[in-house]
Amino acid sequence: MGILVVGSVAFDSVETPFGKGDHVLGGSATYFSTSASFFTDVSLVAVVGEDFPEEHVAFLRSRNVDLRGLSREQGKTFHWKGTYGYDLNEAQTLETHLNVFESFRPRIPDAYRDAEYLFLANIDPELQMEVLNQVERPRVVACDTMNFWISSKPEALRRVVAKVDIFIINEGEARQFTGQANLVKAARQILDMGVKTLIIKRGEYGVLMFSDNSVFAAPAYPLEGVFDPTGAGDTFAGGFMGYLANTGDTSEAGLRQAIIFGSVMASFNVEDFSLNRLKGLGYREIEERYRSFKSLTHFEGIADGRGGALAPA
């Protein structure tokens, strides 16, 4: 069961305290597709300019990403420039050149319209709704957003949230969207908008997943070297949705496993700039890190014997 993703394919120019990359491959749909491709087939809808190198197209094809929905238009490719300080949880945007992405109107090829899994990456919520109107009802629809759309088009975003199954957002955006400082209260307010599952990304502090009757917390993987967090959220979403599409298991247990696989993929992504780490990644490494993740939070239950540490005095 494959995934359809609609989002951006872009150039990133990024500087962190640990190095920099200039005009490297980026974009929400790129990170998502690459991550998800380790688990399932991916079809991509996006736009690039005349300056987009064939080597990047070849890389996506090497990951078996279906590019019939990638259009090349006159003009330049979307380019984002940003910097991170030692607090790698938040980027400072220096320049944003939308270029051909400014007039992007997603047109879903007929071959993609019956996709069972759909990810609406970070684009205008009005465009996200246009995509929803072009597809048959997928089994699972997930979407992402950003602070700009929360402040500029909150009502359009609420309409999208009411129509999707899974909403993925970071903690700052959750607070901004609801006006609630407490994440649990913010989560309940977002769930009341109609979405079934809410995932709140917390950077180096991990992930929270909320539904009507459960809360799940997953840690971030402790790494000695974090070089570039750009695209980590989209890489997480790709691993998460890719695993769901691979197994078809959308139960509570299946969602929790998918959260960990998403976290695994994000942990690899931040180890290098752009998609460099994912380009050399093998599935055995993914499995090994998943097992390491599992051991991070494994602990035994309280012994059911008398005289233990919790026995009354």
Summary, kept brief:
It is built from 11 helices and 13 strands. The protein is of the alpha/beta class and 313 residues long.
Whole-number average pLDDT?
95
**Rg computed from alpha carbons, rounded to a whole number of angstroms:** 20 Å
What is the third-level CATH name, the topology?
UDP-N-acetylmuramoyl-L-alanine:D-glutamate ligase
Number of strands: 13
- Residue fraction in strands: 15-25%
Distance between the termini: 57 Å
Topology order in helix (H) and strand (E) letters: EEEHEHEEEEHEHHEHHEEEHHHH
Low-confidence segments, given as residue ranges, are none
State the secondary-structure class. Answer: alpha/beta
Shape: globular
Identify the CATH homologous superfamily. Ribokinase
Q: Which architecture would the CATH scheme give at its second level?
A: 3-Layer(aba) Sandwich
The number of domains: 1
Helix share, percent: 25-40%
Spatial strand arrangement across the major sheet: 5-4-1-8-9-10-11-12-13
- Give the biggest beta sheet: 9 strands, mixed
Instruction: Please give the CATH class.
Output: Alpha Beta
Treating each run of at least 4 consecutive H or I residues as one helix, how many helices?
Answer: 11
